[in-house]
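worker-03 picked up job from queue 'complexes'. Input manifest follows; two sequence lines, order preserved.
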Amino acid sequence: MKKPKVITLTGYGINCEEETKFAFENAGATADIVHVNDLIDKKKKLENYQILAFPGGFSYGDDTGSGNAYANRIRNHLWNEIEQFAKEDKLAIGICNGFQIMVNLGLLPATESYGKREAALAHNDSARYLDRWVDLRFYGNSPWIKDLEMISVPIAHGEGKFYAEQRVMDTIKKNNQIACKYDKGDMYDYSMLEPNPNGSIEDIAGITDKTGRLLGMMPHPERAVHFTNLPNWPLLKEKYKREGKQIPKEGPGMKIFRNAVAYFE
Amino acid sequence: MAHRIEISSRILDARAHVLKEKLGRLGIRNIDDLSIIDVYTIDADFDGGKLEQIASMLTNPVTQKSNINKPQSPQKFDFAIEIGFLPGVTDNVANTTKQGIEDLFKQKLKSGDEVYTSQIVFLTGTLDKDEIERIVSSLHNPLIQRIINKTNTQFIKDGGMGIGVPKVKLIDVPVADIVPIIDASDEELAIIGKNGIQNKDKNGSRRGPLALDLSYMKTIQSYFKKRERNPTDIELESIAQTWSEHCKHTIFADPIDEVKNGLYKTYIKEATKKIRADKGKDDFCVSVFTDNSGAIVFDDEYLITDKAETHNSPSALDPFGGSITGIVGVNRDTIGFGLGAKPVINMYGFCFADPNDNSPLYKGKSFTQKMLPPRMIMEGVINGVNAGGNQSGIPTPQGFVVFDERYKGKPLVFVGTVGLIPKHINGKSSHTKQARKDDYIVMVGGRVGKDGIHGATFSSEAMDAGSPATAVQIGDPITQKKLSDAIIKEARDRGLYNSITDNGAGGISCSVAEMAKECGGCRVKLDTVPLKYPGLSLWETWISESQERMTMAIPKDKWLEFSDLMKRRGVEATVIGEFNDSGKCVVEYNDKKIMDIDMDFLHDGLPPRPMKTTYTKQKYEEPEIPVPHDLTQSLFLMLARLNIASHEFISKQYDHEVQAGSVIKPLHGKGRVNGDASVTRPRLDSNKGVVCSQGINPSYSDIDTYHMAACTIDTAIRNAVAAGANIEHIALMDNFCWCSSNEPERLGQLKAAVKACYDYAVSYGTPFISGKDSMFNDFNGYDEHGNKVKISVPPTLLISSIAVIDDVMKAVSLDAKFEGDLIYVIGETKDELGASEYYAMLGEERQKKRYIGNVVPVVDAKTNKKIYAAFHKAVQNEIISSAQSVHRGGLVVALAKTAIGGMLGIGIELSKLSGTWTREDFALYSETQGRIVVTIAPENKNAFEKIMHGNALANIGKVTKSSTFAVKGKDGKTIINTNISDLMKSYKSTFGGY
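worker-03 finished. Artifact:
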């Protein structure tokens, strides 16, 4: 089988491209980190890739709204290529700042067509940047989340509160476009922190487009690729050891990347 | 003409809600409603259609609405306050907007066209004049921000806030002035050295401190006498930068008493030399003291670099700007290491005054130049590192906060960065670099403005009324991120340059002259340096500390490729001259020579200034205090103290997981307790890890700076060891933040501390690889009654430790894990409570002033080293379930953190605790060094005790399932009895509202 090729975009303050590439390659793909300007200058071509990743980061310092300026740059120069990519039988993911960029581009939720802004990721209720772990419960039929029920992953953002008007919310729900919600799971049992970290409506953490091939999520699965990424790994290690169990090496976030690779098998 | 786009939120605005709560906490409770409007002022000719396009680019249609040239306001409001920047202050959002407009119309803005941003805060409520004043002063810093304040009536009468355009207007003519010094009297020389070159205005104002004392001025005078000419202003300013305490570290370099080669060479550098020789083939140091960071071996392919800096004076004036430029500045010490290392870990350390202290300080007489209050400094500094670290995509897992009233005049802001670099790049060793003759001198990154003039000379002086506001800069992390990525991730591996260094203190005057040492000379064409705005003086262009710039040496045949790459990455790179071997540092403007100084004189011409010291040991009253009858209550009070309480609110707002290598995070266990060390996996494809920790004990300086330094080293090492580090592979960094370093007493204290650094580093075999000092952390001004005050920080030493471990899976966290686990204390406990947190607490309770006492902890390095080695063996055998280094607050605080971390109970029998302690409260709160609290599974008892055999060890209790925290005293009676949730409440309440 040929490995799917992943394009991991970077530039202007994106900063999670290396770990995103690592996660995809660990899952069996080949991944290139490509500066958005190299796509604009046609030094690289989007059509040569099967998976498009908008990684996390702080593009343009969140100035004028997180993800807004980077989305404008893509809209000004690359819209046709991106829209074409979205319409093909390919996969795209936006993580954190990448999710914000996809929403600003109107790639998500895209209840009618690609390109119209219908949702927003507003300031957290605390109005402050927050790094912590959450539990996610998965919904819908997106290939990205196949066989996933619940996992724990970290979030790290200042603007992650999902918002859309009621009409859009109704459509998203009708179309099964909610991919994951903050919920009570292992991490809640461990830390007892409020499951919803930012005030997102209906606890939404991630959504897909209508096809399920495009996924955006605030949490960072690429930061949960090693067992030692878990905040409670020292406790779990001690527990497994005393129970005579094998200590895992991999973190829960890897499943999402494996699903993406499996889609092309 | 200028246009104004105003954007309001159509949904609940969390920022407004949080601001209202914050003002409430400041005691302003009569605000019924508060809303925020974002304003973009576009100073350019655009027609209505284009403005519509711009507004739509800036507005999120789902959540916001915008008006063009038509004021917005809520239906009902009483006051409107607009906050914007002063002319020339970095406005990052405006810069992004400008780029966005140019991208949108695919056309550059005309020269002079600009964008400015501001915010309007609308308030509803019955607020009196005093309350409005307090709101205004809490919303802005007058050094960098402008404010317009209107009542509803005025707002309506004026038809809105009006359009303000904070354009920079400068009219300086670009010539270099001659400064007549060769015939000047000593008196005149001294004034020039202290207050700066005289301006050509009527009132004889001066340009700000050169910080050159008379002996330096006379040396400069005789240099120019020999050349039969007077210096230009740029020459004098350049020498002042290069010779500044900030750059040359003369206090550490010059002879002091019998120490002819100075403190640095004799004690710090020599310690490392000796340790490296002792280690022989196990020496892990690669680059020490010579570069922007120090470097040690990580694995067969990579090096780890480390550097810590301070940014104290700027943070006192503009806390946000000071700390953000601090953190992104120390990142450049990583990018500027060798051929360029990638920043992988950030660290911080803040020393503040009590944020609840509201009594004002003034820099000027008669209640003028009010200093920012401690709370605003604290919040601004924390926010600055948040913005700088988070936006740069560098995890910040490690840091501390220390409080003392003597940090009120100047806070201390420590920032550090660890980097990763391959040992070899293109077949060449990566930690060496050399600018070559004929290489282009290239400035990369941001442009030059008036910001950060005299930063180097300013921080070499105490802060008083003459401190320049232009020393303030605001960082632009994204400009630097673009620069960093383009260099570290692309240009470096393509071999496009020969050398690189950071533009920090002194700007290009220091970086170019420094790099010119590698080849022997340079010629700079100052007219090619890109400016933020016209009208800068030549000397300002040369020494400005505008941020986010690196200086590089680029071979001519690589320039086109380099320049093309930078263009495509949105990074500005400009050739500003050439390196040569002329032996001279020459600067020209429009082909006219304005500076021509011998390299030797510039770098080594400064005469040594021998120093004499005295050191009078203070004798304090030994506090006579009975054992408190309620030790449970004491524990609650202790856990809530500023120096002990949880600073989770900082840990969780600093991204500590970006780059995906987080192993031991800043918060440990179910109860999220602040740890003392972090562990990071910098290469995702490897199991190797980096342990980082810090030690700081300024209160001990009150008794003895030698032991202060010894304890600080021991703490930094012990914290790392407790997390799993091997003492055989730990390196250290020293950051001295002293005060009044022109006084013999202070120098005597310094000498003792530096001597301890030698003694203990050598005993432990832990080499120093880098360091920095800041010697004048004093405030001279006036208190709330107008009385003259001098506030000096306590002599403060930060020791940072860095260690490499082979397997991150063997790292240890501090939280208790399972019921039934055995609790041990390794190391002896003595009655060492001098300058302890316990004495401070008791003193404040009883006499409103902390007790100090005299018995400061004394470190027994030989005993401790044996403990640390044995403990590491236990870690390697994976029989340690949790470990917590005992430091500030003593044993009972460490036990409480272990329990809160695990959310499990603990039962302790103090009678079993080894050591020479005499009183129960002393046993609980003594700060004896060298101790670690450990929990282990009962089945590991024999194995653990066997490994630890020969070291002081006591099994003092058990982890229990109940949530009870109980301590039995000497005679078996219960002296502390409480539960975990109450302990947690005390531990977390202090900063609960932040």
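worker-03 released lock.
Residues 68-87 of chain A form the longest helix (20 residues).
The mean pLDDT of chain A is 97.
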